[in-house]
């Protein structure tokens, strides 16, 4: 009801404010007996963390996690896993001057109106720092998917007007982590980074897109009608701060094909039914069909520009101000593990939900 | 868990197969004492119904609804409302030859794999006929929104490569229902209809986009973090058959703006805080900010082309076949009320969920 | 949120008013490919139905059910099953004189206060006629349990001050349906029926208890902490009209044993671990342990006595009145299938919820 | 789905193992702007805590809580509140010898069978130590109820065969905290304590009942049909370890009254409608009617007796053993705040759920 829990079977409840004591999550529904891959948790925290490169905010969080429950002798118990990261390098004083200002395109105004109170320090609960919780939960989801042989790889596919032209099938996705922008095409990556540096120099920010490819999902995941696998992926992505668009398979471009061009023809391939093309993006009728699931997510340029801005104060007066604080000129490279984490949670949720149908007492 | 219920506070459980006895919905959470606008229910059923024009399938359903519960002397009781439409003009024999064929880009294959059984007649539960349930529930949601002074208007904004160029703010949305394609620009509507007729003549199908504009939503609806108003709208739209993309506010196009161009500056307008621009699409931090909410939904061309096709049978053999049955060459005009219905349900759900915060014992 | 849905994995949404068009339920989560036992549905409807014997109300409903969705060629599809019974013998005029009176110990007053409107005819939604929906859903749950070899048998164990003295393990539960009161001890049954007839003659009503025994539940069903199997059974029983007490295993009597007397000692029985005694009632830590689950439910005497009564009107005036209508002097025999239905739903819900743990990718 | 979350609108997710790092809870749905009563949290933790008196286990936990999120400058933010207590005095070595033994009437066996793994130290997640989470969440619920003028008072009404004879209306409930057993009748309290000491001396344990009285609940809380206020209270109580019975209002005793004796007659009292008697226990049709809500909960004697016992090992061998560790001879006094906490959560949940109906756009 209150919107801080995601997933029905693999259920994650996020908590924490940006400058409060901690950010964390309770995962309810993680399978028991799973060896916890502490390295994986740490790796994704580092991929998301600020201060990785000169492209990102200089807030310097060690991002050390603590597991408070649900793990015993290195294995999951099947009980709720509470895992958290303490906020250590919060510089709340940076926000003192913003206490009474509604920053443009931030959620200061809507939080204040909705709740009648807000923690203005670092954006409080509206801060993208909340996504630490998602990365923590996503790491557990990824452990399950790894065991099942499923891979998830996200990457930056566009920054401002600079786009990858190759389809994912032609890219070497292993190159993604080879550069700070997480773009699998090294040359394009370089151009993107230059554009970000230019924006940074002028106190401006850039948006773009992140693409994601998921391989080896079994046939049959996803619920028909409202909880389609694609619908849950769309919600998952749109729950990430700054997301303005979602495109699955052929997406918006597919609207310009005719049915005869768009239909994915089935064929049998050594006993397994496949489609020759994959405009459907691996999902038909809300249910995975065994093909690659791929999608693209649009991120607007982040709102915390460092140029002088106009706005109104909480008492409705016109104000001019400049944001200090430490902010990313382009959030995209740090959002890559967040996109992966949310996708992983959706998949594991539907894996578990599909378990009922695996029992088949009437088959 | 099983994906046939939508909404938490205004909760709709859909049931029915295309050629089964009926399609219907149970609405749990509709406010009591509401005079039921039977005309509105009927009007939206007619807007969604097949056989409206030569553009749409010739299946001829009277679409007469029956209310089984929850309404007494013309008013809602606050108890569950079950409302249904019986399927009358189902021609199941049209589907006999398709019983053992997996139609390309349909969900025959994934349903069969997931459930081990399917009602092949008319596509069974995967049929877009399921959306009758959504239109029925959406009508009740619209009644609540009307009382609150909120308007929802969807319209066709693109068919194949033919697009509206005007932004919604420049359009006369009252023109939407003036033509069979539900496009508010009459000239463009004509071009769209011609394109559909050409496709129809060759047994082909066309996709496109539907845009939707919602006005006068109060500030404060939507839950932060996972159940953002935009996230729930994204899920709602992606739960509609054939949807491949969703774009809120500035959407994918907004990724090509810089932060300094994209930020929506606040100003006070006679005591009310507004934004000068609305790239945010009326939602900030997942919460409505009082501006217009607008979004765009991509629909792929429908899969039921009437040309000869290849596929495999349920026993994995290669087959050639041609779909008979009665099918739309372009689903977009009939999907307009479905988009509105899903949007209305999301809004009412968040209206009711926000009620808790209105009590304010601590204010 | 609105309390008309029961169960998370096997999820049943009830609808209908006593004198409205129909009472029904949507079952979401029934396994696919299950042959529907129409006889079982009918049998339980007949066991619940009014007019079975001179002990029960003379309202005469044929109780013919109609399945609107989810069943194809006699088998479940895995899609939502909507099943309903139309109300035919409603005599709403019997209730005209009660329209403005709050009947003592009925829910007229609380419904009116909560919703500001109510369907007074036959008690509307508060009527025990709503339990038709539960019996319908319970029948589907029973079909699954039968396939799994699990039996559920409820019976009347007390009417007013007349109690069975034998523990369930000594009774011949097959005798339950041999008499109109559904008491497995024929002599006691006779005494009970005489007491009911005496009450009936004076326009009075009697309460009592129903006991229930469930055999062959596998080890491991039930969720720890809040959704304990016993907690969900308690809720299920307390959701039935007129229930005032619930007692599992040793129950209230067990509070007078010492720990050394109450503990159930484990022993190995040919490879299977059993307990020598069963004070736990088949559930430990909220999880089934493989022993018989047994419990007892207290029903107050029904409120619709046929003697003159005092109350207040909706306009707060003191009134004297006598209920006409057709009412049971003792609701217990008709409540036996309702207790079974609710228990069956709880069990199937936890069977399905436990499915996730059966997958064991990490075992 | 996984049973570690309680409540729909006021939603509490519990985490933690007895000898793990911490026990805690995330509360989602607490109203914003509420001044946090830190004293109240502390007081209830102390009432629940071990080592309070010679009656209770000597485990000595300081029970210092830490709030990780959701509170800013002493007030709630409306965002999730994570609050936890670290486990400090865990003596896991006490449990080494029990690692491979299924203790009688504990959940060792069922947890192991369900999950294939368990944290045996201190009973892990099955330990009553989990109720720390409930007391923490309940304290926040109590703060809301206090503001609304609602009081909740639980007390020990029976230990073994020693019962209070007075109805709650005759008791001075303010005496409850005057003695270590939390019984409002000082003389009876003394007898109860003597009985516990005798049991303790022989390594035995005693059960009993806790009663609870809730005053000044407004009319209209509770959802009809499945989520009746009484049904949710029954579930709440049965979710507490060792509970075997629940009795609302007249309860099991009421089954021996006739309808003419049991009916609660309405009368007008200076403009407010009341009932002359209150056999209904303050709830009619699942909805509060403004009268006192009162109920009784049966607790079996705790399973951890200190006498030699028989059981089987995890490898199915017969074993003899004696539990060491620190255990309560009678859990009842420490369970009093737990009963209150669970009741408070149910009430606040339904208070918030009823908020929707308070908006009344159609009134």
Describe this structure in words.
Four copies of one chain form a homotetramer. With 363 residues, chain A is an alpha+beta fold. The first copy, chain A, has a single domain, classed as Chorismate synthase AroC (Chorismate synthase, AroC fold, 4-Layer Sandwich). In chain A, 27% of the residues lie in helices and 23% in strands. The first copy, chain A, has helices at 38-48, 108-115, 131-147, 186-201, 229-238, 251-254, 259-262, 332-359, and strands at residues 5-6, 11-16, 22-28, 65-67, 71-72, 75-76, 81-86, 151-159, 162-163, 208-215, 243-248, 266-269, 272-275, 283-284, 287-288, 293-299, 308-312, 318-322. In chain A, the strands form six sheets. Chain A has a five-stranded antiparallel sheet, covered by helices on one side. In chain A, a hairpin with a 5-residue loop joins strand 17 and strand 18 (318-322). In chain A, helix 3 (131-147) crosses helix 8 (332-359) and helix 5 (229-238) packs antiparallel against helix 8. The longest helix of chain A is centred in the last third of the chain and has 28 residues, at 332-359. The interface between A and C is medium-sized, with 25 and 25 residues. Strand 11 of chain C pairs antiparallel with strand 11 (243-248) of chain D.
Greatest chain-chain contact: A-B, 112 and 113 residues
The major beta sheet of chain A can be summarized as: 5 strands, antiparallel
* Distinct helical segment count of chain A: 8
The neighbouring-strand order within the major sheet of chain A is 1-2-3-7-4
The amount of helix of chain A comes to 25-40%
Quaternary structure: homotetramer
Number of domains of chain A: 1
Predict the CATH topology of chain A: Chorismate synthase, AroC fold
Structural class of chain A: alpha+beta
DSSP E strands of chain A, number: 18
What is the mean predicted local confidence, pLDDT of chain A? Answer: 95
Give the overall shape of chain A, derived from the CA principal axes. Answer: globular
SSE pattern of chain A: EEEHEEEEHHEEHEHEHHEEEEEEEH
């Amino acid at each position: 009801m209150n919107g801080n829990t995601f997933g029905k079977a693999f259920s994650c409840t996020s908590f924490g404010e940006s400058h409060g004591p901690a950010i964390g999550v309770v995962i309810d529904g993680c399978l028991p007996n799973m060896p916890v891959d502490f390295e994986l948790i740490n790796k994704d925290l580092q991929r998301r963390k600020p201060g990785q490169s000169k492209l990102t905010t200089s807030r310097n969080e060690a991002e050390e996690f603590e597991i408070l429950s649900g793990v015993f002798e290195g294995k999951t118990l099947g009980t709720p896993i509470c895992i958290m990261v303490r906020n250590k390098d919060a510089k709340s004083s940076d926000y003192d001057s913003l206490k009474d200002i509604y920053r443009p395109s931030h959620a200061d105004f809507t939080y204040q109106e909705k709740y009648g109170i807000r923690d203005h320090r670092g954006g409080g609960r509206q801060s993208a720092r909340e996504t630490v919780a998602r990365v923590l939960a996503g790491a557990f989801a990824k452990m399950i998917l790894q065991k099942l042989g499923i891979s998830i790889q996200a990457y930056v596919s566009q920054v401002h007007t600079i786009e990858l032209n190759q389809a994912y099938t032609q890219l070497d996705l292993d190159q993604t982590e080879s550069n700070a922008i997480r773009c699998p095409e090294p040359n394009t990556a370089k151009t993107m980074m230059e554009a970000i540096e230019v924006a940074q120099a002028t106190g401006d920010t850039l948006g773009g897109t992140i693409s994601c490819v998921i391989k080896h999902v079994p046939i049959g995941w996803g619920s028909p009608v409202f909880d389609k696998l694609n619908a849950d992926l769309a919600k998952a992505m749109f729950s990430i701060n700054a997301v303005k668009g979602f495109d699955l398979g052929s997406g918006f471009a597919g609207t310009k094909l005719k049915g005869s061009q768009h239909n994915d023809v089935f064929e049998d391939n050594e006993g397994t039914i496949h489609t020759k093309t994959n405009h459907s993006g691996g999902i038909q009728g809300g249910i995975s069909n065994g093909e690659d699931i791929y999608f693209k997510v649009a991120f607007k340029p982040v709102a915390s520009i460092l140029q002088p801005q106009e706005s109104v104060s909480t008492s409705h007066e016109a104000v001019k101000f400049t944001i200090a604080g430490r902010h990313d000129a382009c959030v995209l490279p740090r959002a890559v593990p967040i996109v992966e984490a949310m996708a992983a949670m959706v998949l594991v949720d539907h894996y578990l939900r599909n378990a009922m149908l695996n029992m088949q007492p009437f088959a």
